[in-house]
Design goal:
786 residues, mainly beta, twelve-stranded parallel β-sheet, globular
Amino acid sequence: MYRLLLIFSILFSQVSFLCAQDKMIYVQPKSVVHQDAPQAYFETVQEALAQAYELREAGERAPITIVLAEGDYHLNAPIIINEGMKDLTIRNAAGALVVLKGSVPLTLKWKKEQGGIFVAKVDKHIDFDQLVVEGQLQTLARYPNYDAEGGCWQGHAADAISKERLASWSAPECAIFHAMHGGKWGGFHFKVEGIDENGEAVLSGGHQNNRPSKPHREFRMVENVLEELDAMGEWYFDRGKRKLYFMPPAGLDLENALCEGVVLKELIRIEGTAQNPVENISIEGIQFEHSRRTIFEAYEPLLRSDWSVYRGGAVFLENAKGSRLTNCTFSNLGGNAIFVSGYNRNHMIKGNHIYNCGASALCFVGKSSAVRSPAFTYKEFVVEEEMESVWGPKSEEYPADCSAEDNLIYKIGRIEKQTAGVQIAMAMNINIRHNSIYEVPRAGINIGDGTWGGHLLEYNDVFDTVLETGDHGSFNSWGRDRFWHPNRKVMDELVAKNETIPYWDAVNTTVIRHNRFRCDHGWDIDLDDGSTNYHIYNNLCLNGGLKLREGFRRVVENNIIVNNSLHPHVWFENSQDVFRRNIVEEGYKDVGIADWGLEMDYNLFPFEESLMKAQMYDIDAHSAFGNPEFIDPATLDFGVKASSPALALGFVNFSMEEFGVSTPALKALARKPEAPERNRRKSAGDAQSPVVEWLRAKIKGVDSAEEQSAYGLNTDEGIIVLKIGAHSLLGKSGIKQRDVILEVNGKKVVDLKNFFSVMKEYGDQEKVDVVVMRNQQEEQHAVKLK
């Protein structure tokens, strides 16, 4: 009898669920009249949401859907969805263009003044930091003027806040000063508080970067200065006098134009509590526009990465599960687009179009309270005696098992420069797939630390990156986790004591596969300080190469590295790193390598000399050299032909067709990277000596009578030092650019092959004696090898 009752109960609950229908709530903006509008509807989203809460409080258990009719919805406050709500959808009516705006329409009566500038009074209760006219963001009065092709800040000048310029302003205390980091590692933003007794700016702010520096001397820009209003599209708001100044673009009917002022930082906030997270919230088919800049809000460091971040966005999620943001558009935003903060599980962010945003597009950022033994600046560290040894997170205050898929992201970081298309920090198992990301000032995808790994990056198309900054990559990561110490010697001692310590935070392997990366101002893939526990395979790197700085267990295999190579930098002893079955088009660009990891082999090099250089270190014993025979590089098809020597080494072709967004509508909008102009320096049968990097210097063999004459040589033999890089051991040993190496330890060198054969004999020595020809005279130098 009990079993029959149990079966009946289960069947009844299933039938009740199937019969339950969504409770529909309709919204129609007051300013728009629809002929087919339902009889009962609300005029604002907040009113509709209040009705949804009333239904939940009355015991309604069915899913609730709020349907928005076509039109603009100007929000007077963010839409708040808290712990009292679950199973809610907010979506557009079928085919309707629905725009949620963090701006208010401005009622203005314009009066023309001199110089083509118009002035209007603004109501007392309105404050805004961006002006939108006819749907287009206008330019806050600035120096130098906006130039889309102007590089940093879309136009920069060293004299942005010079004494002379400051003295010409009537209200310098209103100015906003922007400057790149001294090393171009992002940017800083300052308020000009006044002018000191020396005529120089008094600044506040500059807290937006976790690796402080002085403002860059050259890459500077200033805005919000009335005297700099001198170009069409520029504006200035005098808050004291409540006067708006504007120089309209040519052809604009200003009297009838829609003018809007941006007033809100957030548009939707989905936030439950730790005990009662919000569940199953879906936002579909909505366009989000107009949010305030957040550059002067409180920032927090993302552990020991180079980044600090404002924890907020146009859409903000915290203490939430199972949310979906799909087929939405995010544009003309002053800060981050979507911020997934703290505890979040199983979200899907898919099919969105994100562009023209002030900061990052997608952020998955946990709380430092979830990290064991956290440290927060580059030089900060945890002493061994105080370091927790428990693996993994301390609490659940981090995003996990979330996906960002099929999103089109470009022209982000328009204000902030320490930004990314996708930013991941203090998170676990985040899937980033089939996204197209380009035209960004810094990284396309950035992982700030090893806590706690398990991320999957696949089928992304990331290019036109690091456009305004430096020392970064299309993909970038750090791993300054518990084991990391700014003193390399201390770090070596810690790992020698306990070889598991690098994995206490990087507990899960992060996989990077089937992506296409191109960076013309850095690395295609840049694994920086401490990045640990990665599997990188089947990626197409189009220009910048692949960098592995010190870290552990990075398995890199079956990748194609066009125009470049592997950049191994200061590896650990027993790093367990693997580099195999890859195609490279230049020799390794190693820096400070004493231990070459677990396996370096079965790779295809472009020419014999580059292979010989590798084999000088007793690696790549089974590797080969030759033309990879790409199928059609001009159309970005870098698969190899059946006759390619790479196949004999175990390389396996992978698809060249699946990178980037896949939704037809987004695919039609998305750009692709340009095919690189290949700089392959030597093919079979070429007589010209290739250029090879050795000890952070570029060298080549003498191969012509012209070079013999130019360098004052007795024969056409020797090794020319073309360029010496920063911190090169050659440079530190007294060798100079345009020196020609003639002998090593008394042995004559003829060409690169002969040179590397000779050097292989002395690879384990601390130094060698070389004879160089300099200014047509021979000199002897001791060259450090380590």
